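Lecture notes, structural biology module. Today: joint structure prediction for complexes of two components.
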Amino acid sequence: MSSAEINKNEVDIVIGALNADLTQFLNCWRPFFSGFHLIIVKDPELKEELNIPEGFDVDVYSKADMEKIVGASNATMFSGYSCRYFGYLVSKKKYIVSIDDDCVPAKDPKGVLVDAVSQHVTNLENPATPLFFNTLYDPYCEGADFVRGYPFSLRSGVPCAASCGLWLNLADLDAPTQALKTEQRNTSYVDAVMTVPLKAMLPISGINIAFNRELVGPALVPALRIAGEGKVRWETLEDVWCGMCLKHISDHLGYGVKTGLPYVWRNERGDAVESLRKKWEGMKLMEKSVPFFESLKLPETAVTVEDCVVELAKAVKEQLGSDDPAFTQAADAMVKWVQLWNSVNSSG
Amino acid sequence: MVEPANTVGIPLNHAALLKDELDIVIPTIRNLDFLEMWRPFLQPYHLIIVQDGDPSKTIAVPEGFDYELYNRNDINRILGPKASCISFKDSACRCFGYMVSKKKYIFTIDDDCFVAKDPSGKAVNALEQHIKNLLCPSSPFFFNTLYDPYREGADFVRGYPFSLREGVATAVSHGLWLNIPDYDAPTQLVKPKERNTRYVDAVMTIPKGTLFPMCGMNLAFDRDLIGPAMYFGLMGDGQPIGRYDDMWAGWCVKVICDHLGLGVKTGLPYIYHSKASNPFVNLKKEYKGIFWQEDIIPFFQSAKLSKEAVTVQQCYIELSKMVKEKLSPIDPYFDKLADAMVTWIEAWDELNPATKA
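The predicted structure, tokenised, for the full assembly:
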């Protein structure tokens, strides 16, 4: 699907600004962002004024806007990398594409710049196939199809809730891994999109992601905040937690999550060894989360996304609350998020 | 347009990985000319050739290959009445080769599969990649978005639980095909000219609980870990179905691997699939399967093996009982198949007596 075929009016590009100077970022993305509406949300803890080049159709939200729309106490939900969720909240579009502000377009093996926005929307517009694995990956793309042995009744697929892209150069590794392999950079361009199977858990990265807001918007929860969360991805887990919730809810409601293309090029930033010095709680929290999500069964009565988030929050509080206060806070944040979602989105 | 690789001039690798621990099983009814192009990569290994069809025909094996060859007469002689479980006039007969092998690993390839080229134009040593896949762990409990974390240049991504990073033993390595894709007959009829030209540079573990269509054209497995589950069913002559041999094995294998905590990988290596089989002939073979798979898939998706099933054979026998109970109502074929599954295990155990520790 070329960018000409995408209905740009259905898409919001949401950027969380953790850096004040967005000139290079936006100029690099200009060929692929032009024609789209942008929502730029400034990290409330960022002191400097944002520097945004001319020529974009953009709405900028800062701390003051957050406080006006959701109240001062709720605005704390959107600090750091979580600022972009505010953009998801106020958007009125069907699809959201979100890219970290330290990423620029990648080049494919032919040297052509990758239109990540187009690829994400294509992924979202085509069905997902979580119920049976297709060994030729995406059966709906040009030159591919379902293979022999793929049941015909499963070939129409299910709606795609999210499209998880990947990263060349600095891959989304955790601090210990990157610190151990300081020189390692991702140079492998894997030319595939695939659906992550039903019940399979995965770590969804917020660095390069898109989702169907109409379908699953409330499930993108800004909830898990680890102690000492920082301004580099190595020091956060909010997106991974959000992704675990999103996948579980998608599985429950019969939607699919895709992974693979598009790639973005992630610039060098931060120092993994430096990040290691901080006491990193993320590992412990992940270990506890896995068995929880593995055995979790949302009730049949949870048929809307909001219901699912509320039920999930309840289960988190009951089963994980005593393990770590971070989980109790996450559960509370999830409930609050649904309330905010409903109030902001019902006021037209 | 993709082309196969030209392997002329590639030197023979005398230090080939696992050359004394791996057998290459090739079913054939025609000839083995294709082996000539595979020579640099496969000559160090022992071949087990399973000759299907007319046993009086002589299959010429290219010079320099070390092999054993079995035709139908041999199969009947070796298995006696149990030979009934081995298909005739269908490449499913290849599983006889798995049974008679004495090696730890098996690589099986079809006689119309040539050497593929990677995007840089280099000839792909498919067997070497399969061995790499089998020798390093799988990660079925949590999906890694950067695919195989053990590959050079890759790793586990942020958020991947550390307790799951050791992985589990890999039982199966499922390779793919450039050029003629492995489509079913209806798809072939609708898209006769479609060719797979996309080289996806990844190996990945198929998550626990997920079924997949396993193609037997380019496949390797750890015979010690999963061998007895690699029965390719009753196909071909006298049977109501064909082209579901590998599919059947794949579904059984995946359920058992999931139960025993073993991994199944798919992706690299690619081979170049040169010959498109006749879609009308295929349609006749697959016809019943197209309907039956609608019931077979839910059956395998919900199959639960007991805690007491701790060996592959025990798992397989349990599965055969479930097949008899749940699938026989669909067609008496499944009753026969369930019996054949038991016969297969009996034959396997006879030819492979367990060594006492």
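Point to remember: Strands of chain B lie at 22-28, 46-51, 66-70, 105-109, 113-115, 170-179, 203-205, 218-222, 263-273.
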